[in-house]
Structure formats: structure tokens, C-alpha cells
Amino acid sequence: PQNDTISGQIYIDSSKNLVTIVVFTDDHPEQTRYEVLDPSGQLVYSRGPLSFPFNYDYAPLCLDKNKCYKLRLKDSAGDGFFGFIQVISPDFGALADYYGGNFGSSLDLPFCTVSPCLGFSLLPQTYPPSGGGVADGKIKLFVQGGNPPFQFSLDGTNYQTDSIFSNLAAGVYTIFCQDAKLCNTTVAVNLELVGTQAPLDGDRKLHVSPNPSANLVWVALPATDQERNAQAWVSDAQGRVINHFKLDRWDEQLRGVFSLEKQAAGIYWLRVQTGKQTFAARIVKN
User: Fold this and answer.
1) Running DSSP on this structure, what letter comes out for residue 85?
2) In this structure, are residues 268 and 256 in contact, taking their beta carbons and an 8 Å threshold?
3) Where are the beta strands (DSSP E) in 119-265?
4) 84-104: per-residue pLDDT in tens?
5) Cβ proximity of 102 and 80 under 8 Å
6) What residues of the chain score a pLDDT lower than 50?
7) How far apart (Å, rounded) are the C-alpha atoms in residues 165 and 269?
């Protein structure tokens, strides 16, 4: 019969790369907008305000290969964004991501569609300063993808081989990383103050077990007096988020569990975001 088949033409533009912008909204999505700007600063795409709280929003885009762009995240209330936003390539993983914080009204996240460098990203762990005006905060970087050795910078000019930046005051930092093939990636990190009831950095460690694991992974983090839950994300070796779950308070710990049963063997990364601090752990699936 004539309706058993259909034919048509498909046009593939080899000069483009498919990327998807993934947003997990906070409790005020109506305050959140974002734009994509090309290398000359011209607007390529815009979206928002977003509609549903604590919900995923996806926007697929075809962007020119081998160019660098800016994702500009905007908050109309001027108090930042406490969900997460990620630019991902289906073939090469995360190009840029931000896991929330008070950046004010606008934050720029640079990313590039340079094919040899795709899948190269940074995962930060933060140690907030102990008080206002005190410069004793710290940021530790974990590299996903790329080709070692790596160099790190707070200004894009002065680089170091150490993946830890110390003696930092509260604020938003853009950290640059370059690998052995001169590929570059950046991550925006919000270093905020914690309350006086927070456990000391040395006592507050993210625990995951068993590690390595073939299935379930249990997560525990010492809680402050005010904390009742925390958001957690699991990403693969290329930075793509594969799981999102919550840690809930039980006794003096924030606890949760997730499964790697359906994932391939390899390296995975866990990131936990409390109200003011981020924690990271490397997990092996066997």
C-alpha cells in the first residue's frame, strides 16, 4: 500500500556542531534567562524566563565548529541562580557548566566548539573563607578529559601546575585550564561564606562507599545546623550529567544513594552542592 513507505531529503551541515543547553531550574525560574553570544558579541540564541521550578529545560542548538561562544546567564532579581546549567555535546561531553550561587544579575560562561578539545572540563570543590574580608578560602580542581599535563589560572594569563588555589576571599572566580595540546576550558566558581555553625573544613569530607562499586553507592556528608538537604549530580568521564538526586538529613549527616548498575565500567564524578559549598568525589565503576 502507498502509506507503507515515506521518503524525503535530509540536509547535514558539516560546518556545524550540535550542542544542548541543559538547565535544572531553582525555586524562581521566572527570574532566569540566558543568551548565547558569538565571538563578535552578537546574539545567537536567547531563552527565558523559564517556567517550572526544580525542573529540567533543554535547548538544542547548531553552532559553528571551531569557534568560541559565551553563555550569559541572567537573574532578574540580582541574587544569582541556584540550579545548574550545562552546555553539552552528544559526542564529546560537557563544554561548560555552572552549579549555582549568588553571582548577582549576570554571569558569563565561555565555551568553544573546537573538536579536538571537546569533552575537556573542570569539576571544582570549594572551601569557603571563614569570614567576611578574610582571604583563607580555597578551590580545588578535578580535570575531566583533556591531555595531561595541565595548567591552571585565575586570570587566563598567569598559569600554575598546582590544581589548588588558596588564600581566596569570597567572590565569583572564573578558572582557566590548558592541557598539553593547548586546549582550553573554564569553569565559574562561586566561593561564598558559610555560617559559624559549619563544621571545620578538615572535618567536613564527602564520603562515598563502596568505591569501586558495581551498583549502589552510598553518600554521606557532615551537616551544618541549618542544612536539611543538598543537591547531588553524577557525571561521566566527559562531564555529562547522568544522574541527579538529593541528600537528606539523617542525624548529623546528609545522606543519599544512587546506582551505577546500568552504566559502563569506568570513571564517574559525584558533585554535591549545599547552600554555600561544593564537594566532589571520584568514583570507579567496575
Assistant:
1) E
2) no
3) 121-127, 137-144, 151-153, 159-160, 164-168, 171-178, 184-191, 207-209, 216-222, 229-235, 241-250, 253-259
4) 898 888 766 778 888 888 889
5) yes
6) 195-202
7) 20
